[in-house]
Amino acid sequence: MLAPDFCDQEYTAEVLRAQGRTDLIVDGIARLTVERGVSEQIESETPPPATILHSFAASRKAYHRTSRTIEVRGEGVVTVPRTKTIRGEQHFLYDVIISQRGPDVLVAVPYHRLAESFFVRIDKALAGRRAVYERLDITKLVVKLGQTGVAEVADVSGTRKLQIGLTRCHVAYSDVQGGSRDLQHLLMSGSQLGASDVYRYVVAPILNPGSYRLQVTPILLGFSLFVDGARRTSAVTDRHGNFKLWIGPGATRVQRLFSLLDAIGSMAGIISTTSNLPILQSRAISEAEAERP
Amino acid sequence: MGRVAERSATRVSFTRYLVARHTETDRWCVSLSESSPFSADEVPLTRGVALRYSPIFCAYLAPDQPAPAFPSTPTSIAFFFSRRPHNALGRIRPLLTEKERELTYFTQGLASILCLNCKLQRAKDLSMSMGNVPLEYWPLTSGELDPRRAVVEVPPVGEVPPVPSLAMTGADQEVLIYVEQIKACMATLWHSYKTHNPEELVTLARLTMLTTEILKEYRDLSQRKPADVDCSLATVKGKNALSAALVELAGSLSYAVTQGASGSSPILLNPSPFPHFSLLGIGGEVRALNKFTRYLEKAFSVRDAAKVIFRVYSDKEIPITPNISGYRSGKDYKLDLASEKLREFDRGGELPEDDEVPLVAYFSLRYGFKESKFSLTAASETLTDEVSPQWTLMTLSHEIMHNRVREIFQALFGTDWDNDRDPISLQNYDAFKIWYERGSAAPACDLAQGLRNAVLNFCVAMDRLEAKPIKSERGSATELGIPYGKLNGIYGRNRPRATELFVHFHDYYFTYASQPRLYAMSLWGSWIKVAAPYARPTDYLVRTLATLASGTGLEPSPAFEHARDILDTALGALERSGVSSPLFDEIRSLLNAEEVRPYFYASYYLIDQVSRYFSSPTIRSGIDGIDGDPFAAGLTLTDEYSANVFVYGEDDEEERASPIRYCLASLVKVLRAETPIKDRLWLTAWNALVISSQEVQ
Fold first, then answer.
1. What integer best gives the mean pLDDT of chain A?
2. Is A210's Cβ below 8 Å from some Cβ in B?
């Protein structure tokens, strides 16, 4: 069972899409880690099945503020981050979650700063393997979700009611014609933004850009998957392909994240790929926090 | 594989030099080095060998990583002639292994990307992945190239119309040589552009039309039978002006050929005239110049200044005060951009330019940043140090604005395309005199006349300030006291000052998006390398202050204080970023000198009129728009612009970065010492790579 050391905080993640053998991608990433666990197959709500691998990134640099203790099944009380001496030097061990389903590979690590260095190493290790990064066109997503901020998506099983809803919206204002910078940014968060009148007002210039002097551009979105009205999982993303999400104990949330991406992918034109490493364009998301589902 | 140079963790340069030396066996010895062949004391040319070289730049960098190792004697080189190299690098990135990435470079030439040590088939595959771009492949044996073994693959170009015809029949013998030169340049450029720069074919077609027009006028003048001496003089003058235009066209097109078309395939047969870029040329840099220029030209083409003046301002009565000493500015002059959608210049319906002639852009060591009627030059230093405030491409915008302002002056004072320097007409003199002497009691005049009056009023005021020791000629406080002939002289002397105020406002408002501190820093950062500000510091100071004060709507004295504070802060910021000059101390002392104020007041009066009647949110939105800018990500602030050296172009057709915004962001990063790497030549080439890859048309 997946039991990350840092499951009390959000993880920074990227989703890679492989054009060849996905197992080589997973293997390439895993080679950069230590204390590698055993790859587990997790039950998936929709096929294909997913696998998950819990491992650790070893770092001489500390990304945490303080060490603390947690109780781990079978290990007792453990101080995290764990440490390991490698080539005579003490290294801190931070969780690396690698999950694969179909052509998609999700990699998640705690601490944005760690992601900034570790994802660059991954990118280097995967060079030549035709791996690209998935990203969401968040402007199109806002448009598809409309003023209500909610859209129904198709359920493969046909037995449930699936909905995508917005939980966080960070928009930038620009007065292109007037050049005014009276209002620059606006951040809204909640369990269902579409239920608020304010949200409708905020996104109106995105939905009907020709009718407004101000240009409003979403730069960060938080969205959730609702199954029969109950929130199942959520994530935050910017327009470059950086994600923030919670990974609790057990693989459920990772598996649900794939369901969330499936649901978004069922809306045409939202998911695209880029060869640029998202973490290198991460100004807006670096300080963002993912919602606890 | 060749010998791998020793890797050094402290290496900070990401620039390498590709060197080709001609051997006695008619082969070329090709090598890579960390420094230019001329950086050593011993100059290889003295040995009598032909040598060509160009800087090349590591294409794929990662944060905090040292420069990759490079083979000093490569086994092969594949040159890719991508027109959008920034995007091509993005396309092939996932396909390249880590080793291949380390051996991939970009250049400033038409062969914009090169890969070392790759097999021919691999090169062909990469060429296809880049979008089937032309490829030249050099197989090397022990670092030697037998040119006969080089492989050149140029994919067929789609349907391209033939070179536009330029009839030479009937052309006067005197101008025939220029016409022939223009035709030859057109043919060479047409051939090169259809492969390497197809967007510029339109420019060539328009220049051909212009040449035909000039020739026709020249022929008409030649056939005219002058009635008297005056008429005969006017004819000669007209013919001289027309032949000067042909000379300028021929000259600038020659530069376009030597700079823009050299470095094409086969590379060794098309050397560049720039010795330090002799192998690959600067075709990519010239393409960047063109993209920058076309971007601004396109934005301005939505409102034709001459049409606005002739059709709208000539039909509109808005009084302008002749009283400079009593001028107060006020809310009508405040650029309250948030509350006002359209300005005077935007009113009167759609008035697009329909016969604009694109400027021919090239680099010049001699002229530096300069603009003339048909061409535009950027300082050659921009090729190696564009990231410094002194040589930033942003300076080019000032020169482009000169072209726009020439159109305005031509519409206000001229009669046809070359008469903007003609004396003011008697009719305009009379109108000015009445307006000047009667003030608000003068008969109402249209806004075009009002603007003419304001310019002349400024010229008179400046002339009187210059002639301070001499007693005023005015008979009374309200009398002009200047005869027609003398006014022409005053206008001639002070017209450049008036022009500069127009230009500065346009540059500040349209290009710099009215960011006063950044504008002041950019101006004075570049002026420390120019002789004129040292010779005439007051002039340069006054035009800066007037620009910074424009659009504030403040009364002159507070406006002066406002501008002075901004300039003082800007100079301090420049010094903190390492840009300093004794000129700054001189400027600071002048900021407190009382004699500067009268010049400022006259300048403020004029620039306020420019600001009120030539500001245009319609044009500005086209320049500063962020709709499709992939680096803007919806952010309006320059420091949040996401363009960085680790990000490559995307294939999204809707995404177009603004060269202006990109250059500004780059300049800001340099001024704040926030660039992730310190190799200035690399950063310079990178900026050109990004700008040259943008679709503008």
1. 87
2. no
**Min Cα separation A120/chain B (Å):** 7
Q: Do B90 and A180 touch (CB under 8 A)?
A: no
Say which residues have a Cβ less than 8 Å from residue B445's Cβ, sequence separation at least 6.
B317, B431, B435, B453
Chain B residues whose beta carbon lies within 8 Å of the beta carbon of residue A120: 62-63
User: Above 80 in pLDDT, residue A137?
Assistant: yes
How far out from the chain centre does Cα B166 lie?
Answer: 28
- Would the pLDDT of B609 be above 90? yes
Confidence of residue B231 (pLDDT cuts 50, 70, 90): confident
Pairing of strands B360-364, B375-379: parallel
Name the residue type at position A15.
V
- Which residues in A lie closer than 8 A to residue B652 (C-beta atoms)? 272
Note the ipTM here: 0.89
DSSP secondary structure of B389-432 = TTT-THHHHHHHHHHHHHHHHHHHH-SSTT-TTSPPPHHHHHHH
Long-range CB contact pairs, B210-216, < 8 A, 24+: B210/B249, B210/B357, B210/B374, B211/B166, B211/B179, B211/B182, B211/B246, B211/B249, B212/B166, B212/B167, B214/B242, B214/B245, B214/B246, B214/B249, B215/B167, B215/B170, B215/B171, B215/B175, B215/B179, B215/B246
> Are B249 and B204 a contacting pair, CB within 8 Å?
no
For residue B112, is pLDDT > 50? yes
**How far is A168 from chain B, CA to nearest CA, in Å?**
17
Output the pLDDT for position B9: 33
At A293 the pLDDT is 61
| Contact at CB, B63 and A116, closer than 8 angstroms | yes
**Which B residues, 287 through 346, put their C-beta within 8 Å of a C-beta on chain A?**
337-341
Residue B418 pLDDT > 70, yes or no? Answer: no
- What value does the mean pLDDT of chain B take? 87
Of A215, A216, A276, the CB nearest to B90: A276
Edge to edge, what strands does the sheet with B375-379 contain? Answer: B360-364, B375-379, B370-371
**DSSP for residue B145:** E
Determine the average pLDDT of the residues in B3-27. 73
Q: Give the domain ranges of chain B.
A: 15-153, 158-263, 304-325+352-374+396-435+449-475+488-615, 625-692
| Total-model pTM | 0.90
What average pLDDT score do residues A153-167 get? 85
A vs B: CB pairs below 8 A: 112
Section B543-555 average pLDDT = 96
Q: Tell me, what's the pLDDT at B2?
A: 41
